[in-house]
Amino acid sequence: MSRLTHSVRSPGGWKRRPNRRASTRPPPQPRLRQSSRHIRFYLLSSLFSRRLLTRLLVFSIIAIVSGATFLTFAIATLSHNLPELGRLIDRSVPISTKIYDREGKVLLYDIHGEAKRTPISLDQIAPLAIKAALVAEDRDFYAHPGFDIRGMLRSLFLDIFAGGPLRGGSTITQQFIKNAVLSREKTLSRKLKELMLAYKIEKRFSKDEILNMYFNEIPYGSTIYGIEAASQTFFGKSAKDLDLVEGAILAALPKAPSRLSPHGNHTDELIARVRYILSGLVEEGYINRKEADSAAKEDPLARVKLKKETILAPHFVLYVRDQLVDKYGEEFIEQGGLKVITTLDWRLQQIAEEEIKKGAEYNEKQYQGKNAALVAQDPKTGQILAMVGSRDYFDETVDGNVNVALRARQPGSSFKPIVYGAAFAKGFTPDTLLWDVVTTFKVEPKDYTPHNYDNKEHGLVSIRQALAGSLNIPAVKTIYLTGIGRVLDLADKLGYTTLTDRSRFGLSLVLGGGEVKLVEHVGAFAAFANDGKHTPQSALLRIEDSSGRVLEEWEAPRVKQVVDPAVVRELISVLSDNAARAFIFGSNSPLILKDRPVAAKTGTTNDWRDGWTLGFTPSLAAGVWAGNNDNAEMKRGSDGVLVAAPIWNAFMSRALNKTPAEQFPPLLPRTIFNPLLRGQGIAQPITVKVNRTNGKIATSSTPRDLIEERVYGAPHSELYYFNKDDLSAPSPAEASTDPSFQNFEDALRRYGEEHNFRGEPPPTEYDTTSTTSTP
């Protein structure tokens, strides 16, 4: 019988399949044929593979034996040198770091002093405080043998690829050893000793005993050791009475006690870590989400008790401490026994503190401005001589522990000298004429129309008058003609760090639209006082270690000439010109010193939140900010000349008392090719007394009742005369190409109509009409 097949329809088409009754025996396989050459190759390959595997096996055994031998030798050596566990009881107290004034005579702060410790047992600590510490530092404490392999590998990975000393991965047991037993050198051998000692401690003591020792030993900042001392210092209560928020605060501190101090400058980082710990408590099942959310809504700092310590110039000391920690690390500063000589002039610091306190208290009564800050600097060396961050570091009602000198605030018109400095560098001069009339600027994202502080228009004014009188409209015209980019370039060179995002700033920058730090603002004015040379600011003169070895010492830094001396001297000639500012400030304002020349500038924000005064002589630059830390508005009309200038004047007068009066250097010649920049050649309106009946120039014979004043001329705006892209060029042939040209012209035309500009040349003929007598 023949084998039958039949077709089956499949998704891919028709296929043929065998009949189910057909035989399923596999077909015969073809005979394998190999040549002798293939057989030899196969045998050689097999032999080579066996030899390679044998060699690899031998090499691996040798490597393992060698590594084990080396490791055994290393462990034996390190074990021999391990400190006795008895040192847990008998150990030395860390040496304090001391911060002094510039003479090395006045002790400003003892970072450690005599360590505060109050040993307690584990059952005397609030359970939530214990759990918060475990969440923050070592969640696997009760499971590991004293060290965390995963954490160590993660740390090793970071060390290899990020570089630097060994770090991180420490368990609570290791942290205890690091603080109580071993030295703080960062080496591989010390890390191995730490691991071995951790293992030994875990074998000798129970977990609760180790945790108890940790809570009595760990540093919480300054002179505070152990959770009981920390609880008493920060909250005025025993550790057993700590609640959830307080426990989280104390758990946050050991990571970086100085930086995260509730009394320091980085409280935002402390708050973030407290919230991280609260979330961790939820993750570990110690509290529920509702409890964590409720606690996170609180201000942790409101719980902290401000306790007055023996600390002088506290804001400056913390400013210095932050720099030391950044350079040398938290542990070395807390326990390294350094002697730090700072740049602080104790006499000037005392004067600054007295005048800030007195001025702020007066402002609170008169202007509803509770706080003030001051920074003084030597312009030539860059050394900070005085720093007061608030009227009272320990006054909670004004957030006294916040150093406002380091906070970014809007500077108001006190930023104008930087703008005019850039303008003078471009070619403008104090004699350049500008129209002080309300003008709308065509800029993105929307048109901008500034107004003067007194809401008046002053007509044609020189830049000297505009800057000295702090007129806003000419200032905005100046930054428009100069270019925002040029202004920000100069600001960068002068040391400002808060104006880097250039996309944020427009024409209002000249009126204080950016934010600056008082300490950097003073540094910029100091560069003007130093003939245009910017000197990096410094707060440290010398640092010695515990053995007296000098770690670093101040040397005169390399200064940068950021502004041409000729430009700076013209700027100073305006800022020190009391006659030029008298039409706005009067002739007897607090911007002058009775016995010597001084350059000064005020600033006020539109909403009365910030008042400023900055000024300098050749040897001293100082700046004052006044306002409220919470950004609350002061009383309407509380400008810089009222709330900041009196404090600045009092400080400068006392600081310079009985010192020789210094003169600013004389002006230097500048080559200005365009006479328009010197105020020459610009058509100005002319006021002429005429006979109103015939329009001729009035004479002595013209009847008085026929005489009237008329304003002649058809003046043009600045953009008619200046090519802002090239000031040395002649007047623009097509000034209308500037997007603001028509607005400038329209503003001046409107002003002319309001002030009866006749738009025609003045008369040239004289009136001959005689006065007739009457009987």
TrEMBL record:
The keyword Isomerase does not apply. The chain crosses the membrane at residues 56-78. SUPFAM superfamilies: beta-lactamase/transpeptidase-like, Lysozyme-like. Residues 765-775 have a biased composition (Low complexity). One of its GO terms (cellular component) is plasma membrane. Residues 373-652 form the Penicillin-binding protein transpeptidase domain. Its main location: membrane. Residues 110-279 form the Glycosyl transferase family domain. Residues 746-758 have a biased composition (Basic and acidic residues). Residues 14-23 have a biased composition (Basic residues). The keyword Repeat does not apply. GO terms for biological process: cell wall organization; peptidoglycan biosynthetic process; proteolysis; regulation of cell shape. It catalyses: [GlcNAc-(1->4)-Mur2Ac(oyl-L-Ala-gamma-D-Glu-L-Lys-D-Ala-D-Ala)](n)-di-trans,octa-cis-undecaprenyl diphosphate + beta-D-GlcNAc-(1->4)-Mur2Ac(oyl-L-Ala-gamma-D-Glu-L-Lys-D-Ala-D-Ala)-di-trans,octa-cis-undecaprenyl diphosphate = [GlcNAc-(1->4)-Mur2Ac(oyl-L-Ala-gamma-D-Glu-L-Lys-D-Ala-D-Ala)](n+1)-di-trans,octa-cis-undecaprenyl diphosphate + di-trans,octa-cis-undecaprenyl diphosphate + H(+); Preferential cleavage: (Ac)2-L-Lys-D-Ala-|-D-Ala. Also transpeptidation of peptidyl-alanyl moieties that are N-acyl substituents of D-alanine. PANTHER family: BINDING PROTEIN TRANSPEPTIDASE, PUTATIVE-RELATED, PENICILLIN-BINDING PROTEIN 1B. In the N-terminal section; belongs to the glycosyltransferase 51 family. In the C-terminal section; belongs to the transpeptidase family. This is Uncharacterized protein.
